[in-house]
Amino acid sequence: MILPFAAAIFDMDGTLADNMPLHHAAFRQFIERHRLTPPAADVAAGLTGKRNREIMPILFGRPLDEAELAAFAEEKEALYRAMIPGIGPLAGLVPLLDALEQRGIPLALATSAPAGNVAPLLEAIGVAGRFRVITLGEEVPRGKPAPDIFLEAARRLGIAADRCLVFEDAIAGLVAAGAAGMQSVGMATTHGAAYLAGSGATMVVRDYHEVLDAIGEWLGGA
Questions:
Q1: Which of 11, 18, 148, 169 is labelled catalytic?
Q2: Which end of the chain is least crowded, N or C, by CB within 10 Å?
Q3: CA distance 214 to 46
């Protein structure tokens, strides 16, 4: 059960839009270009929500210096950005943002995505300018599943962590939300509901229409 909350923090990839298939396609192209061995399915699933600087050494099977990390990350993200045009928001997202704003709930974005990916996706799905705060994984010491990014988003909003509700599609992000002391809604987009069941999510939904049906109750009848 979701208890009343004072702020909503959203992950981006797989949470605002069903764009993880685009990331997977970009990684496949990147792996083929560099003649790398694709990670096993269980390893690949565990990489969802992590930063490129944490993913790339696993793909290459060796430590990478800063120049390599930056170059490889930009190469992969350029492949991804070329696929963004035409993508839309997850079902019910825009009405949910409207409902939250109408109730005075501030919105934040907390994403592991590189800075260059944020504006193109938000613009493509029609939600640019909707988030009071945008916090990037590269702006905090540790990536998800550490709680740093969510704690920083709450700090920038000026809202206590335990009064924030996180929307996330990845296990790493849901674990991070729990570590931050926040309630969370697991979005069964990138992974199915059964896979997210053990993530610590307060609840799991298929799309935002399920959230809209319950939002008044969650906000104490607001």
A1: 11
A2: N
A3: 30
Name the class of domain 7-18+88-218.
alpha beta
* Per-residue confidence band for 192, with pLDDT thresholds at 50, 70 and 90: confident
Catalytic residue among 13, 18, 148, 169: 13
- For 68-89, the DSSP string reads HHHHHHHHHHHHHHTT-TT--B
Q: What is the pTM of this model?
A: 0.84
pLDDT tens profile 63-83 = 999 999 999 999 999 999 999
Class of domain 20-81: mainly alpha
Q: Which residue has the tokens 């990390």?
A: 69
Q: Where are the alpha helices (DSSP H) in the chain?
A: 20-33, 41-47, 52-60, 66-81, 93-102, 115-124, 148-157, 171-179, 193-196, 208-218
Q: Where are the domains of the chain?
A: 7-18+88-218, 20-81
Query: Quick one: pLDDT at residue 221?
Result: 57
Tokens of 204: 């799991």
CB 51 within 8 Å of CB 115 = no
Establish whether 13 is a catalytic residue: yes
